[in-house]
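Retro notes, structure queue

What went well: the backlog is down to a handful. What didn't: a couple of records were mislabeled last round, so from now on we paste the full input next to the output in the thread. Example, using Deferrochelatase from Streptomyces asoensis:
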Amino acid sequence: MPEQSTPQSLPEAPASPAAEEGVTAPDPGGLTRRRLLGTAGATGLALGAAGGAVGYAAAPSQASPLSSIGADEVMFHVKHQPGITQGLQARGHLVAFDLAAGAGRKEAAALLRRWSGTARRLMAGETAATGDTGVALDAGPSSLTVTFGFGNSFFARTGLEKQRPVALDPLPDFSSDHLDRTRSNGDLWVQIGANDALVAFHALRAIQKDAGGAAKVRWQMNGFNRTPGATAHPMTARNLMGQMDGTRNPKPAEPDFDRRIFVPADSAKDPAWMVNGSYAVVRRIRMLLDDWEKLSVTAQEQVIGRRKSDGAALSGGTETTDMDLEKTDANGDLVVPINAHARISRPDQNGGAAMLRRPFSYHDGIAADGTVDAGLLFVCWQADPLRGFVTVQRKLDRGDALSTYVRHESSGLFAVPGGAAEGEYVGQRLLEA
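Corresponding output:
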């Protein structure tokens, strides 16, 4: 788990534009999530009055207006797909699909067209065009984002081998890998995130239903983060080890951010359809929490190289103070251990390797061996996975103190094209080239 983690508050995208022509279908009965929001408060009061004891127990004590969290909306038609530079979302679903037997380029194009139309509608706070489940009728957009990518195997399945990026070559094996191949890779990948669990689930069901007979789910992983507003002021999130996890991520304000995270227009090694896109590495990293929690706080801090209380480097200062890699204690020992995770994963210790992390935590109950099955759904974004994730993970593989307490159990690499322009669907420049 490289240290460059995701900041809690990256800039939000502006409001969504008007509906895309030819994609938005008439809403059945004139009912939309947006229209329902105006009557939700009154309906809640009526139920509370008429429902007696049941209504009192099930409903809030008083009606509340739609909060800013529910009203936040992310645009679908943007330069880079949504779900990359937005801040951490409270709930997420990662899903990989394989194309069905006999499905090819034509079916894939139709599927991406359906998926894009559904994503645009739901991100704008509208209902699905057909077969809406009603799960999110009384909720706002809640910062919903839906992001689409292509796996290595997609290109052979669709006869587009010549368009497959070299950067999609399989990731190398690492000594910490204990990979379940059935929960790795896939032809297509979808990332869903929102600040409301029901809004996220609603989008998940809509995407699964839209797949129809064209694709089937290969694997699905469900995650969560701290809910925005849960702390007295915005701050870096913590992971399930209790460590602040979001200190050294590259920031959009940095002058070289775009070239490190997104494929530039003048790229000599990437196909034209990947311009403004990015490469996502997805890893399910199980945290061996039973072992980790036996360590003292001091021992945990030595493993990470940062204080648990405030995320500051052991060399001193605050969370954002540069780490002093040469500082020693009274005995002449390095204050930040030579194998500390934060030291090894620093960009300046890896040739400037940069990746933008947007992880989710997960908890899948108790494993068959009786241990807690919980950890991190690691998602990182970069213009070049070989120079980004692979460079850092190879360094970690050779001596990261944290490796004793984590296990990489699934893996995937996906090419995520740039955002769809008005009137386009995601991946159209590849599928209709």
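Agreed that this is the format going forward. Reviewer comment attached to the example: Residues 306 and 314 are 5 Å apart (CA to CA).
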